[in-house]
Amino acid sequence: MQEIRARVCRRRGAVLAGVLAAVLVVTIVSLSLGDYAIGPAELWRTLLGGGDRVQSYVVFQVRAPRLVMALLVGAALGAAGALLQSLLRNPLASPDLLGISAGSGAAAVFGILILGLTGPLLAIAAFAGGLVVAAFLLLAGSRRADGGFRLILAGVGVAFLCVAVTNYLMVRAKVELAQAALIWLTGSLASTPWWNVAIVAGAVLLAVPAVVACARWLPLTQMGAATAASLGVPPSTVRIVAVLAAVLLTSVTCAFVGPIAFIALCAPAIARPLLGHGAVGIGTSAAVGAFLLTSADLVAQFALPGYSLPVGVVTGAIGAVFLLWLLATSKGRQL
């Protein structure tokens, strides 16, 4: 048993180290590429405080906030997806398909267009919208044995309802506000100030204790409610903590960069085969999510010469292909 545990720990460490190395490579590329190219030597000197004024401005005021936001949002969505998929034991359980992102988006659009909210107040509105949807979904799946399957179906319905509400608000809004809201709804990391990054980082740190606790509790709950309760882990408490953490991570990121599609779905589905032992893999999913979003942002910036796409367009295209692949595999056929 100890030998198996040691082998699992070594594989987990190797996978996490490999993903973090890939994240480091993408980070260096993100800070180097652009209209004002910076070589590796100049980038290293600038990061240490030795670059000229132009290099320092480009790195620390233009590229670094966007990069750090991409890392935070990708990690948050990857962790949220891992929490929900492990809790519901369903590879399609993600904030996108469960309607949590749509609920946060609808509440945020209402705050932007009707209430004129910005900054932290907008984040609070998005969190409230996601929490309302999550509470409804938990109620919908709490009384049946197939609660996970019912949650997926209920989430799809709630997502369509939230999209309808959002479209109604967009039609009623002024053209200028509707255009700004549409760009936000697509999901974009452009023009990210440091204060936005600070708020998202604070929210992620606030969710860390709950995520760490769930990483310890979820494997026990997967052994059955009776077994988990006998070991001192009440399944109802685990469900509430996991959902609240997932809603917090999803809604806060949604409030500042818009609903980034499919990262929460793809990251855990990639992390689990890499780990190869059926673990929850929340930390690995967070690292994979950070890599996916930073890579997608690079594609969004440089895929079309002279034109920068919203990153949500790229993640949506990649996620749609990934979802079709997932449904075509044995995992998808078992849903």
Automatic annotation (TrEMBL):
<dbReference type="GO" id="GO:0005886">
    <property type="term" value="C:plasma membrane"/>
</dbReference>
<feature type="transmembrane region" description="Helical">
    <location>
        <begin position="202"/>
        <end position="220"/>
    </location>
</feature>
<feature type="transmembrane region" description="Helical">
    <location>
        <begin position="307"/>
        <end position="328"/>
    </location>
</feature>
<protein>
    <submittedName>
        <fullName>Iron ABC transporter permease</fullName>
    </submittedName>
</protein>
<dbReference type="GO" id="GO:0022857">
    <property type="term" value="F:transmembrane transporter activity"/>
</dbReference>
<dbReference type="InterPro" id="IPR037294">
    <property type="entry name" value="ABC_BtuC-like"/>
</dbReference>
<keyword id="KW-0472">Membrane</keyword>
<feature type="transmembrane region" description="Helical">
    <location>
        <begin position="240"/>
        <end position="267"/>
    </location>
</feature>
<feature type="transmembrane region" description="Helical">
    <location>
        <begin position="274"/>
        <end position="295"/>
    </location>
</feature>
<dbReference type="InterPro" id="IPR000522">
    <property type="entry name" value="ABC_transptr_permease_BtuC"/>
</dbReference>
<feature type="transmembrane region" description="Helical">
    <location>
        <begin position="121"/>
        <end position="139"/>
    </location>
</feature>
<dbReference type="Pfam" id="PF01032">
    <property type="entry name" value="FecCD"/>
</dbReference>
<keyword id="KW-0813">Transport</keyword>
<feature type="transmembrane region" description="Helical">
    <location>
        <begin position="12"/>
        <end position="33"/>
    </location>
</feature>
<feature type="transmembrane region" description="Helical">
    <location>
        <begin position="97"/>
        <end position="115"/>
    </location>
</feature>
<keyword id="KW-1003">Cell membrane</keyword>
<feature type="transmembrane region" description="Helical">
    <location>
        <begin position="67"/>
        <end position="85"/>
    </location>
</feature>
<comment type="similarity">
    <text>Belongs to the binding-protein-dependent transport system permease family. FecCD subfamily.</text>
</comment>
<dbReference type="GO" id="GO:0033214">
    <property type="term" value="P:siderophore-iron import into cell"/>
</dbReference>
<keyword id="KW-0812">Transmembrane</keyword>
<feature type="transmembrane region" description="Helical">
    <location>
        <begin position="151"/>
        <end position="171"/>
    </location>
</feature>
<keyword id="KW-1133">Transmembrane helix</keyword>
